[in-house]
Amino acid sequence: MLIVMNSKATKSNIDNILDFLTKKNLKADISDDENKVVIRVKGKNSLDTREIELFAGVSDVIKISSRFLQSTRTYKPEDTIIDVKGVKFGGDNVGLIAGPCAVESYEQLDNIACALSQVGIKVLRGGTFKPRTSPYAFQGLGEEGLKILREVGDKYGMAVISEMTDASQIELFEEYVDIIQVGARNMHNYHLLKVLSKSRKPIVLKRGLASTVDELLMSAEYLLLGGNNQVILCERGIRTFEKATRNTLDLGCIPVIKNLSHLPIIVDPSHSTGLRMAVVPMGRAAIMAGCDGLIIEVHNSPETALCDGAQSLYIEQYKQLYEDIKQIAPVIGKKIN
Ligand code: PEP
Ligand code: MN
């Protein structure tokens, strides 16, 4: 942090700030350059710029702490590539995840996984602890769902991903899944993130419904700081005034995040649009925008799905999207692996 004093600042103004920093156990040095005194606060700190701005004699407070953040390219310039049983996310790879919103039964998941594995999909999604807006809606099969997910995944040689909604579920998720998903509603659940930072499973961290890119990266920071560097970010749409789609897919965040961070970012065109007819076009657009993969809801019978049927693709639609991605990805130097 740099504290820039104004030209009228007195020695006692400067001493007051230095005393304050000392009380916070922070070290600082001072440069006095052409009537402008700049105090440089050394090392990592969690100072609130507003606290400093209130001191007499201060003209500007500049936070430069972002260079300490582990998610940034300043910290690690090269792309992080996350390998889940041979499927890579990051670099020039497009990693694909597909499956139903929720695991409903063995037969349902077996049917979908069989079709998807024939398409070439190697990572199967399936919600088991569902965070639903209405408490009356299907809440997921819980542990039973995780067992089905693991069994079906193993049957078709697929890695599996499911959303963990509470820190108390960690042992179950360590046992049954290959990737742990943090849902949009839990992006700000810092206790959950701290628990997951101690796991060695890759994490798909979804952007919160009303979260900025900076906040998403700060949540990723919790995982990295605790020692889990296998973080895949996920843009899943944000809430805006627009009602024509379920959320507004912020494709602009992809180049922005790729510029700021070395972490892979995938896109969820299902929850961001909420409309089956919009999933394929936005999936294709996300690939063109440079994302590192897609997570998409697919169902064998969307009409009878217990959750998110209206945004779930038919298998045939997904097959076509897969063919499209095979053609689109090389245009921007990427490949499905
Ligand atoms: C999901 O992927 O099942 C889900 C609930 O997504 P989100 O957290 O993005 O709403
Ligand atoms: Mn869903």
Helix-strand blueprint:
Layout: E1 2-5, H1 11-23, E2 28-33, E3 36-41, H2 49-53, E4 58-62, E5 82-84, E6 87-89, E7 93-99, H3 106-119, E8 123-125, H4 143-155, E9 159-163, H5 170-176, E10 179-182, H6 190-197, E11 203-206, H7 213-225, E12 231-235, H8 253-260, E13 265-267, H9 269-273, H10 276-288, E14 293-297, H11 315-328, E15 335-336
Parallel strand pairs: 7-8, 7-14, 7-15, 8-9, 9-10, 10-11, 11-12, 12-13
Antiparallel strand pairs: 1-3, 1-4, 2-3, 5-6
Helix pairs in contact: 3-4, 3-11, 6-7, 10-11
The structure holds phosphoenolpyruvate and manganese (II) ion.
Compact overview of the structure:
The protein has helices at 11-23, 49-53, 106-119, 143-155, 170-176, 190-197, 213-225, 253-260, 269-273, 276-288, 315-328; strands spanning 2-5, 28-33, 36-41, 58-62, 82-84, 87-89, 93-99, 123-125, 159-163, 179-182, 203-206, 231-235, 265-267, 293-297, 335-336. With 337 residues, the chain is α/β, with parallel strands linked by helices.
Characterization of the model:
The structure is a single chain. The chain is of the alpha/beta class. It has 2 domains: 2-62, Phospho-2-dehydro-3-deoxyheptonate aldolase, domain 1 (Alpha-Beta Plaits, 2-Layer Sandwich); 82-336, TIM Barrel (Alpha-Beta Barrel), CATH 3.20.20.70. Helix content is 34%, strand content 19%. The protein has helices spanning 11-23, 49-53, 106-119, 143-155, 170-176, 190-197, 213-225, 253-260, 269-273, 276-288, 315-328; strands at 2-5, 28-33, 36-41, 58-62, 82-84, 87-89, 93-99, 123-125, 159-163, 179-182, 203-206, 231-235, 265-267, 293-297, 335-336. Strands 7, 8, 9, 10, 11, 12, 13, 14 and 15 form a 9-stranded parallel sheet that branches. Strands 2-3-1-4 form a 4-stranded antiparallel sheet. The relative contact order is 0.12. The mean pLDDT is 96. Bound molecules: phosphoenolpyruvate (PEP) and manganese (II) ion. The site of manganese (II) ion (MN) has 5 residues, from loops.
